[in-house]
Design a protein that fits this description.
The protein has 552 residues and is an alpha/beta fold. It has two domains: 327 residues, Metal-dependent hydrolases (TIM Barrel, Alpha-Beta Barrel); 194 residues, no CATH class. The protein has 16 helices and 29 strands. The chain has an eight-stranded mixed sheet, covered by helices on one side. It is globular, with a radius of gyration of 24 Å. It starts with a strand and ends in a 5-residue tail after the last strand. The mean pLDDT is 96.
Amino acid sequence: MTADFSLTANVVDIFAHTIQPATILVEAGRIVSIAPIDEATPNPALPYALPGFVDAHVHVESSLLVPTEFARLAVTHGTVATVSDPHEIGNVLGVAGVEFMLENAAHSPFKFCFGAPSCVPATPFETAGAEITVADIKKLFENPKIGYLAEMMNWPGVLHRDADVMAKIALAHAAGRPVDGHAPGLRGDDAAHYASAGISTDHECFTAAEARDKLAVGMKILIREGSAARNFDALIELLPEHYANLMFCSDDKHPDTLVLGHINQLVQRAVALGCDVFSVLRVACVNPVKHYHLPVGLLTEGDPADFIVVKDLQNFEVLQTYLNGRLVAENGKSLLPAAPIAVVNNFHARPVAVKDFELPAPKTERPILRVIECFDGQLITARVDLPAHVENGLVVPDVNGDVLKLAVINRYQPQVAPALAFIRGFGLKSGALASSVGHDSHNITAVGCDDESLARAVNLVIAAKGGLAAVGPDGQEILVPLPVAGLMSDQEGPAVARAYAAVDALAKQLGSPLGAPFMTLSFMALLVIPSLKLSDKGLFDGQQFTFVDAVE
């Protein structure tokens, strides 16, 4: 229910570049008038009213929360809408997964804009739980709640004008929907050729130079700051000149950081760096609404009453959040009620044995490992060739050298042997981590110091039919169950955030120096981000787009 009310504040007009005391009158969920008060300058005794923040690209599933629970946390930080790619649950359940997200989101006034996943499965080099075809996408676009074609990760297919890829893009254009991009590292002519297919955004830039190449050919750039990939510092220099073609996004946001903040944090950081406040708010509030044609008000007369009240324009402490004239958060507390959470899943893996993780050494005199090197705050990896450690005819981890064993286990088919490789950068000194969140196909991904720990952690996840697990010496075990598609919890957001914080703390206690070890782990199977990753089918070179041996 919405109530008619009025509110007096310093109203921030992003379009006119003015801040003036005014009274906002709301009737039937819409702004019917904004009446200025005689004062021409902001009144320091009043708070500030401005449009709500929009996350321009996020996988809600990566918060480990269903949409309604994500919304309950996000509104406390002034977020009123997201552009949400249901790609993760799409890989698990196909179109039924997208429909689950739409149905759950319908229980919240939060303004979710879901896309039609364009790459399910993301590549033919991994096992997903489902496929979303050209015909499926055509059917999805018949639903007005599907607002865009979600990130086109098959950038080689775009560059080579693959027929299936181009058919999906053509469907989006015919339906009047924008097409999101995903083109890490593309520069120059390749970036221009990618954009010329009708792809309008990219959120994968990790250097300003790359972003400038894409801006030059008409693409909009999303500055991403999530739990694993953090590109704000590298890209924020673009804002003063290119604010009209930038947006903010999180992409992937774990619940412990979502509890603390969201897009409001990026706004605060940008203003603290000296960026013009109107330009920053254009990026955070206006550009996503205009680009994706979101039904979100921008604090003008006649708009839906979607706006926020903040204490000041430095820290952006959110005092109130309104959606369609309804007060949904106040002073850091969500006023949205919990909604029922259905449990859907696709999980058929059976328990594994310690011997399943053994890797026989080749017959060569000095075997060499192709080692994945991961980096904190980045999705890209490097390849490092190192001498293999061999004991009793088996290739084993070198814990002192931070060379640990990585495993991916097919969760959709029972009793498939794990794919094995080695990784540097996780820093564990003992134990193992395992997760059923493994982009993009969401098989079980695990990293560990020994085969016994790997088997323990993986079996915890299998027993729960999805979850995050950490195991250490002396019987230490923590599991966060994720029964909804093996990706999301069926519990309320704050409880999930506490549970995640506990398993994250154990991962760091075991030695990991990474800011978000489980988020980083979830991307070690993401084949479309170079250079070396591991799928359930083997070690994959993302630059050559081919499988390679882990040891030779």
